[in-house]
Amino acid sequence: MIRVMVRELLGRNPALDAMFRRHVWSRIHFPEAELKALDALPAGAIDCAIDVGAALGGYAWVLGRKARQVLCYEPGQVHGDYLESAIKGGAISLVRAAVGSQPGELDMFTPGSDTDARHMATLSPDNPVIATPGTSVTRVPVVTLDADVPARIGTDARVDVLKVDVEGFENAVFEGARETLGRHRPLVIAEIEARHNPRHGEVFGLLEGLGYRTHFWRDGRYHQLTDHDIAALQTAEDLAERLRPGHDPARNRYINNFVFQHSETRIKLA
After folding, report:
1. What pLDDT score was predicted for residue 51?
2. Residues 206/257, Cβ–Cβ less than 8 Å
3. Residue 221 and residue 14: Cα distance in Å, rounded?
4. Residue 3: is it exposed, middle or buried by C-beta count within 10 angstroms (0-12/13-18/19+)?
5. Looking at beta carbons, which pairs linking 68-72 to residues 24 or more positions away fall under 8 Å?
């Protein structure tokens, strides 16, 4: 009963909900293995972290406790307002823009107005979700990490972590981050799904071409991915189970988070 009342209260007050997620929920709830591993790091272990597609701050709140500086990129109006209400007084800075391969403006497709739909918003014209009835289109600013990050973090800072969750637009994000990746060799955590990105193999190829190795978490440990065929890790049955109400994240078999590490990556998970 109390849990229902709290949920209803937070649902009516986005700013309060954001503060609750930042200061309470993000300290006890880790739906992804990578979040739990980052939370285990000591404060100050990360110099600079970048969160591309910050959404409601699931990664930002954890990174904000571990990094000297966190840059969050979020183009969505609702999610941007939500983050802005809770980032004051910390290491987190919000950049209200999308990230791509070149600066400018692009259409963002949002297949609905509820929270789940906003989490599926994408700039990729190749993502089938854009054909969903009722999808809205919004023009948003786009920056590249190579051009935007240096001016925000300074010449002496080191990018230690790069998290990317952009619903199929990964190719463009990494194309515009080649210099950042080459200079800093950050730990990369990226959500990549074949159902959202028909060109997902190019993402693995780009990062591996820069000297990265790919890993994924399953059955309580990290495994190395030796090819770009992720179909066996993303079956329809495993997806249905993951989306089932009450699903236990610890028993997840649908793999859409991939960890990329370089030999010079300072913060390692795998």
Report:
1. 98
2. no
3. 36
4. exposed
5. 68/44, 68/157, 69/93, 69/153, 69/157, 71/95, 71/149, 71/152, 71/153
Beta-carbon contacts of residue 220 (< 8 Å; ≥ 6 apart): none
Residue 24 carries which DSSP code? I
Strands (E), 146-250: 159-164, 187-191, 213-218, 221-224
CATH of 30-261, one of 3.40.50.2300, 3.40.50.150, 1.10.150.20, 3.40.50.200: 3.40.50.150
Q: For residues 147 and 163, give the distance between their C-alpha atoms in angstroms, rounded to a whole number.
A: 17
Edge-to-edge strand order for the sheet containing 98-99? Answer: 98-99, 136-143, 104-110
Do 71 and 152 meet the contact criterion of CB atoms below 8 Å apart? yes
Selection from 30, 85, 91 nearest residue 66 by Cα: 91
76 in helix, strand or coil? coil
**β-bridge mates for residue 176, sequence order:** none
- Say how far apart CA 216 and CA 223 lie, in whole Å: 5
Q: Is 90 exceeded by the pLDDT of residue 7? A: no
Separation of alpha carbons 13 and 209, rounded Å: 46
What pLDDT, in 10s, does the model give residues 63-79?
A: 999 999 999 999 999 99
Question: So where are the chain's domains?
Answer: 30-261
Residue the block writes with tokens 């969903």:
132
pLDDT tens digits, one per residue of 199-225 = 999 999 999 999 999 999 999 999 999
- Put simply, whether the predicted model's pTM sits higher than 0.85 gets the answer yes
Cβ count within 10 A of residue 129: 19
Mean pLDDT of 181-207: 97
